[in-house]
Design brief:
The chain has 395 residues and is of the alpha/beta class. It contains ten helices and 19 strands. The strands form five sheets. The protein has a seven-stranded parallel β-sheet. It has a five-stranded antiparallel β-sheet with strand order 12-13-14-19-16. The longest helix has 17 residues. It starts with a helix and ends with a strand. It binds 4-nitrophenyl 6-deoxy-alpha-L-galactopyranoside.
């Protein structure tokens, strides 16, 4: 888990045939997420397959996507190799319902993994256990399970080192905790250092994503929410920037850069990773609104990333002025509400020798301890209205 704990920030990519539908079916806008359109709009398999000849994302540029992720400070990318609609984005021998059937005819996972490997970003695979395309009920399930394993094997054999196998769709009744454990071991046999999320098995408690009791998987996966308090187990919150994972033309309900930056900090302050989603367009581009927000996050990270990477949950939780993270003896105070009286005060008994503003290292910042509280004398104006980080050191 070493690299994963160091990383703290990754990009989720939901992309597939549903991007072509863009949240609309026969002129009607679907209520749910873009990638669920087949299910929500009750589209028969043969109708949904009409998207195959329309999938031609000529503007897709793997190198550019990786640059966008890297520019935001993200250390890994998790992409949908196959979502619930059953369509794979790579050249699979095990499952012919894949990108090679489209006019695009390029192995997207190959191009993206090559770009990730050459830019030192960890390539990770999302893979859905649930499949609306392949008949998997009753006696057909054995065939489906065989295909699922064959696909996982391809993904862990043909694309170099893979950081995470990110399973999903584990709630289908045919899937059991035993199968989850078997799949976990199967992944580790292909690549001994691959990390597997907790959706490989049945241990997850709904949207909270937290594992109940002993179950397969290396980390917990809260969805669209950040836990209320710090956790000791490994966990990663996945989140959308608007209200959909897969591209949906009508969804312009974007979170502000302030919200996204503070969510990243909040997650790190509780000891977790932040997996932030983009849903590329049918042309193959990350939406402009997402690019703008990622650039803002990157600007913040450029100055403050040492207060995120490799940190653990902060010593002060539930502090209304902001959040804290920790790295060994060093404490990082992420101030959201800059004090009007020029003193940042935190309930913390630890003593520190020096305090430095990461965004303004030359500014004079004094730190004192009154027995109950750490008091930091800061300049009148916040160097960053979203989050100014003060680095506290004991020596
Ligand atoms: C799942 C997918 O269905 C969704 O399309 C997306 O890929 C997301 C990351 O994961 O969404 C879920 C999974 C589980 C629950 C809700 C949504 N749940 O347990 O309530």
């Amino acid at each position: 888990m070493g690299w994963w704990r160091e990383a703290r920030f990754g990009m989720f990519i939901h992309w597939g045939l549903y991007a072509v539908a863009a949240g609309e079916w026969k002129g009607h806008t679907t209520k749910g997420a873009g990638e669920w359109i087949m299910h929500t709009e009750k589209v028969p398999v043969s109708d949904y397959e009409t998207l195959v000849p329309q999938f031609n994302p000529v503007k897709f540029d793997a190198k550019k996507w990786v640059e966008i992720a890297k520019g935001a400070g993200m250390k890994y990318i998790v992409i949908t190799t196959k979502h619930h609609d059953g369509f794979s984005l790579y050249d699979s021998q095990a499952n012919p319902y894949n990108v090679m059937k489209t006019p695009f005819h390029r192995d997207i996972m190959k191009e993206l993994s090559d770009a990730c490997h050459s830019q030192d970003v960890k390539m990770c695979w999302y893979h859905s256990i649930l499949d609306w395309h392949y008949p998997s009920d009753g006696p057909k399930y054995a065939d489906y399970s065989k295909m699922l394993h064959a696909q996982v094997k391809e993904l862990l054999t043909n694309y170099g080192p893979i950081g995470i196998m990110w399973f999903d769709g584990d709630w289908i009744p045919q899937w059991t905790e035993e199968q989850g454990e078997e799949m976990y071991n199967f992944c580790r046999e292909q690549q001994p250092s691959v990390i597997v999320n907790n959706r490989v098995g049945k241990g997850r408690a709904g949207m909270s994503g937290l594992t109940k009791g002993h179950a397969a998987g290396d980390y917990d996966t809260p969805e669209q929410q950040i836990p209320k308090s710090a956790l000791t187990q490994d966990w990663e919150t996945c989140m959308t920037m608007n209200d959909t994972w897969g591209f949906k033309k009508s969804d312009t309900h974007w979170k502000s850069p302030e919200t996204l930056i503070r969510d990243l900090i909040d997650t790190a302050s509780k000891g977790g990773n932040f997996l932030l989603n983009v849903g590329p367009t049918p042309e193959g581009e990350i939406p402009e609104a997402s690019i703008e927000r990622l650039a803002k996050m990157g600007e913040w990270m450029k100055t403050n990333s040492e207060a995120i990477y490799g940190t653990t949950a902060g010593p002060v939780q539930d502090w209304k002025g902001g959040r804290t993270t920790k790295k060994g003896d060093v404490v990082y105070v992420h101030v959201f509400e800059w004090p009007k009286d020029g003193v940042v005060e935190l309930p913390m008994k630890q003593s520190f020798k020096t305090a430095t503003l990461l965004a303004k290292p030359e500014a004079e910042v004094k730190v004192d301890q009154d027995g109950e509280n750490v008091k930091i004398k800061v300049p009148a104006d916040a160097p960053d209205p979203i989050a100014s980080v003060i680095k506290l050191e004991t020596k």
